[in-house]
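We store chain and fold; thus.
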Amino acid sequence: MTSKKRVLIVGAGAAGTAAAYSLSKHPEKFQVEVWEKLSVPGGVACSSDIKGDAFVNYGVQGGTPSYRNTLIMMKEFGFKTSPVHMMISFGKGKTHWTNYAKSPLTEKLKNEIKRFEDVLKKINRFEFFYIFVPMYKVLKWNGFSEDFANEMVFPLTALFFGTGNRTPYVSAAIMARVFLDEDLRLFDYDSELLLSQSPEMFAFPKLEQMYETILRKSGVKICLNRPITSVKRYGTHVTVIDQDGKTATFDEILFACDAETVLKLLENPTFFERKALGNVKYYNDLILTHEDDNYMNKHYEVNKNKDQYFVRTDPTDPAKIEMSFNLSNYQPQLKNSNRNIYQTIYLDDNLREKYWTVDEVKKDKVLLETWWRQFSHSWTHFAFTVPLMRYLQGKKHTWFCGAYTLINTHEIAMISGLAAAHRLGAPYPFHHDPLAAKQFDQYLLTIHGKPRNFGCNKMTLLSCILAPLMALFALFSLLLRFCFNRKS
């Protein structure tokens, strides 16, 4: 007889919930506790009631059919998604364009649109190099105009990855995957219009209820309103102290919270932990839920019956971006409300005084004001954090998951939790779905450096081949960061 392994999961967002779910399938092996500092689970995927007997989701809006791990888990707990077709309105006036109609801007920039497709293919072919190159550099090197960069490429990138005012610094390799990754791409590249499709997506049900249900029915111990103040790691166990001074001991700790919090909690973080987690950059963003039609009409081209997404650039500095949603065309509970409920996202509070237009929204039209902390997808993230993550996993009984370990999507957050649970000994539960398993295998190989099943198979061979290459890649990353820091 062997005793159960005591596992603490820090954070009840997508990653923590997925890890708890997977571990809970093996109660004979694991005794799981989830500690969450907030009063509700979900992390950055939030819900809130608003006046008029309604609710809105924020932080996470929806996903694509390729979110297989998310969709399978939701179905298991009886949650259904609502299909929507992605309708986007970019710019205002002369800079206006959409993904469903021709515009004067696409006509003006048609030669650059056609040429950009070839550049994306080149980026994809030499991805190892372009992972270190920000998007604005690639556009400059290839002679693209500021109009094409600021009015088309950057707003589109910000929409896909929520990168906001750090968009010019997004890795070029990540942008190429939006169009060229056969499994994950949203759009086929249109060599005349850039975008000409309205792909099917889905909207989530009430997020707070979804996460609470999954955790409760998984049977793990959930401790809400229980923030941690300190984590000490020893040779055989981990000791955790909460805000009330209570101490608990676990065999393993799984961090499913942001990188900033991890570094604050850990006593004596390792060299790789300091380098990888310390490189993740976060910014404070404001989400304003409102019903101000005048504000929306002033700053966007608004088709109230169609558009769901709105992206505009600042007229004084086109590299600065603002995004909005018409939730009444997106979230199913609002579609028949005879209201137009918007969310506008103001990015990076360091820019508030100069660029934010939040003061133009009428106070009596505001339904909800919420702040969140968003990490940046700049090229430095993929150069200095992602290559090092595999060397953190499992050291000192510590595991790391969350979207920040790779790309900021709900699906990656879910996969990261499943991957950490798998490494602890809970076999991956969705192997029957080819796309879900493929995405899981790719994440596990990249962030953990391991195949799902050791043996005489393709993934084991690939992991053996990649191991020395990734070690060189990590060394190059550290050297590059040293040079970059000295230069700056």
Observations:
- The chain is about 35% helix and 20% strand.
